[in-house]
Design brief:
The complex is a heterodimer. By secondary structure, chain A is of the alpha/beta class. Chain A contains eleven helices and 14 strands. In chain A, the strands form three sheets. Chain A has a six-stranded mixed β-sheet with strand order 6-7-8-3-9-10, with helices on both faces. Chain A has a four-stranded antiparallel β-sheet with strand order 2-1-4-5. Chain A has a four-stranded antiparallel β-sheet with strand order 12-13-11-14. The chains are: A alpha/beta, B mainly alpha. The structure holds adenosine-5'-triphosphate (ATP) and magnesium ion (MG). Adenosine-5'-triphosphate (ATP) binds next to strand 2 and helix 1 of chain A.
């Protein structure tokens, strides 16, 4: 459904998207995961025809994004990161307006409005001005507005920011339902749990580049079972490193930020071996941390940075 | 078809937002209407001396009857109302001055004791008497009020002087040319001469000289302009330019809220977006013009002139120049604070320069020239031509052309610099 090849976007000197390539299949939920400033919104804005790009090829639904943007537009729907609604108009009027600019009219328009209002559970508030809505309700309406014209590709830019758990589950259910209807969804988030739960495949982004791409399972496998961080005194670190490397369960070991970083095939056994080793060498462990096998850990593993500070 | 529907969708959306915003309605409709009503009533006495008579304190210290005669004539002119007594007491100079100091009245006129003697003095006298009439005016009294009063007074006094001098003059002539004419005959002759002069000057059967107010050839005015005709076009034009504030902040809001971005992802051309966005504001401008002129005509009996087509054309172009300025400001302003500041600065300065508040003919030459750089001045002139001067479309075309040039320039630059994000 979407093919991206060598996409580059610069803001002046700053490279916001750096040779990004990937493809998204029909009916797939594709996660763009990355910290603030990773380039998620920039990428989505380009795909949604809002931003020109500097290099690369993009096709959506078989249409070239650069040359056939007008053909791409009816296929796509954007649910922007910031709410994009008219606060003084009612939910109904907002949806009617966005429907009409896609050419929906009359009974067809009314059907669609009713359908998306049902979908986001706002039917009974249809006549109320949006400014009287709670934050979560506004987010749901924001989602509805992106769905009014039944797009085949949906861009969801951090749709769960500032949303209570209930509305959040609501949005998750919808993503699943839309996926079942064959809609391709690009979902950006910096919540690993969301990506793990919703996405068929996830691209981990940082500084405009895709660091890793695959199913959640494939990404977790990058950790190779797990990662252990062990804190020791400075000279002890140097002394222990060669011994740790020779442990059978350890895939790789290195020094990172004054700690010993150990990638293990099997975390639990490696941990026991490590403790035995430190006891035997009389090099006491000052701290010990085990990374859970999740995308957060994968990100930390790939970048040495945390997703959220 | 699709495009038309999209334009309609955007325009209707903006109109709906406008109608749900009481502040905007007040700004666009109530504000100019209030200005028209309040200012028209407040300034009514300036423009319509006939309707509300100017009150004038009159202190008559004259020992003769000449001052009383002038006061009677002054009263007979509908413009002034002389008051010779205050609360049952004949006015004294001190009392009159106190009334002015207290702010009860603005003007007082004092006839000196020797007034009649001065008018009736012998022409051959060696030491002529001069009588001094005093006009005491509160310094805050506008010149529009005092000047006509002074003029009127001078006229009346000259007339009085002339009639009073006729018998004296004849006496003088008789004394010089035929001193032996019998007194009775002389008396008769003098009476006849005075009667004739007085008739012709003071409106006897057939006055010898008449003054009539007319308008220049080509202008059609059946009724002199009232305050509404002076004020309505000015404040209406002032009012329509407030669209700048409305349009520019709406554009900035769409930019800020990301609704423009959402529209940009839809199959919607930028031209359609812009047309859809501007149409409602242009329509609001037209509605303002229709309501302001209509209300003034229906409620206050203001004449709408003789050229409906001229009025329509001028209104269409005036509204375009206002909406155009809105696009321009929307395009160049980056924040809503800038819109607020720019709007107030631009609108008030331009409206004042353009003559919306004070007629331009009262301004010094350089300000008048500067005023020509505002669309308000041209719009106002065009409306005054139609409403007050009774011109038709053809005569106002040059002014309409100037106004259209402003509209084109505003739209041109505004659309060129317009940003949706
Ligand atoms: N209009 C712009 N002008 C200049 N630089 C920009 C602009 N928009 C984004 N950037 C830069 O591009 C980079 C990517 O920004 P982007 O908004 O795509 O990040 P993001 O992944 O969506 O982050 P977040 O999680 O905070 O939403 C950042 O370094 C940002 O500063
Ligand atoms: Mg973002």
């Amino acid at each position: 459904m979407i093919e991206i090849n060598g996409l580059v976007k610069r803001y002046g000197d700053r490279l916001a998207v750096d040779h990004l390539s990937c493809s998204v299949r029909a009916g797939e939920v594709f996660g763009l995961l990355g910290p603030n400033g990773a380039g998620k919104t920039t990428t989505i804005s380009i795909l949604a025809t809002l931003l020109p790009f500097d290099e690369g090829e993009v096709t959506i639904g078989g249409y070239d994004l650069r040359r056939e943007a007008e053909r791409v537009k009816p296929l796509i729907g954007l649910v922007p990161q910031e709410l994009a609604l008219y606060p003084t108009l009612s939910a109904w009027d907002n949806l009617a307006f966005f429907g009409r600019i896609y050419g929906l009219r009359g009974s067809r328009l009314r059907e669609r409005i009713a359908a998306v209002l049902d979908l986001v559970g706002l039917r009974d508030r249809a006549g109320d001005a949006v400014r009287t809505f709670s934050g979560g309700m506004k987010r749901r309406l924001n989602l509805a507005a992106g769905l009014i014209h039944q797009p085949r590709v949906l861009f969801l830019d951090e749709p769960t920011v500032g949303v209570d758990p209930q509305s959040r589950n609501f949005i998750f259910e919808h993503v699943a339902r839309l996926k079942a209807e064959g809609v391709s969804i690009i979902y950006t988030t910096h919540y690993m749990e969301e990506a793990e739960r919703l996405c068929d495949r996830v691209a981990i982004m940082d500084a405009g580049r895709i660091l890793a791409l695959g199913t959640v399972k494939e990404l977790l496998d990058l950790l190779g079972g797990g990662v252990i961080y062990a804190g020791l005194d400075a000279e002890a670190l140097e002394a222990l490193l060669p011994h740790v490397r020779s442990l059978p369960r350890v895939k790789a070991a290195s020094l990172q930020d004054g700690r010993l970083k150990i990638e293990a095939h099997e975390v639990r056994t490696a941990l026991l071996e490590l403790i035995e080793l430190s006891n035997a060498q009389h090099l006491p462990l000052r701290s010990l941390a085990v990374l859970e096998p999740n995308l957060e850990s994968v990100f930390l593993h790939l970048t040495g940075k945390r997703l959220r500070d | 078809m699709m495009m038309l529907n999209q334009i309609l969708a955007i325009a209707q959306k903006d109109l709906k937002i406008f109608l749900k915003d009481p502040g905007a309605l007040v700004l666009m409709f109530l504000q100019p209407l209030m200005f028209i009503v309040v200012m028209s009533y407040a300034l009514a006495s300036l423009f319509e001396p006939g309707e509300e008579r100017i009150q004038l304190l009159a202190v008559n210290e004259d020992h003769g009857h000449q001052a009383a005669a002038i006061l009677r004539q002054l009263d007979a002119l509908d413009a002034f109302q002389g008051e010779t007594a205050w609360q049952g007491q004949p006015l004294t100079r001190a009392a009159a001055e106190q009334l002015i100091v207290d702010g009860q009245r603005n003007l007082a006129i004092i006839f000196p004791p020797n007034f009649s003697r001065a008018l009736e003095q012998d022409l051959a006298t060696a030491q002529p008497i001069t009588a001094r009439i005093l006009l005491i005016a509160d310094p805050a009294t506008p010149a529009q009020l005092t000047e006509p009063l002074l003029g009127t007074l001078r006229g009346l006094i000259e007339r009085r002087l002339f009639t009073a001098m006729i018998p004296k003059g004849l006496d003088f002539v008789f004394a010089q040319l035929s001193p032996q004419t019998p007194a009775e005959q002389r008396q008769n002759f003098k009476a006849q001469a005075e009667q004739a002069v007085s008739n012709s000057l003071l409106g006897g059967d057939k006055p010898l000289v008449e003054v009539e107010r007319i308008t220049p050839a080509g202008m059609r005015v059946e009724q002199l302009p009232n305050t509404f005709q002076q004020n309505v076009p000015g404040y209406t034009i002032y009012g329509i330019f407030w669209i700048v504030s409305l349009l520019a902040s709406s554009v900035l809001q769409e930019r800020r809220e990301g609704t423009f971005r959402r529209m940009l992802t839809a199959p919607l051309s930028r031209a359609v977006m812009l047309i859809g966005k501007l149409t409602p504001y242009y329509l609001i401008n037209l509605a303002q013009l229709a309501i302001m002129l209509g209300a003034s005509s229906l409620l206050f009996g203001m004449s709408l002139g003789y050229s409906p087509i001229g009025l329509i054309v001028v209104s269409l172009i005036a509204a375009a120049s206002a909406t155009g300025l809105g696009v321009l400001i929307a395009a160049i302003a980056h924040t809503e604070a800038q819109v607020g500041g720019l709007t107030i600065l631009l609108l008030l300065t331009m409206s004042a320069l353009g003559g919306c508040f004070v007629p331009r003919f009262l301004m010094p030459e350089w300000l008048r020239t500067l005023g020509l750089l505002t669309p308000q001045a041209w719009a106002l002139e065009a409306y005054q031509d139609l409403l007050v001067r009774g011109y038709g479309l053809l005569e106002v075309l040059p002014k309409v052309g100037a106004l259209a040039a402003f509209a084109l320039a505003f739209f041109g630059i505004g659309v060129w610099r317009f940003r949706f994000e």
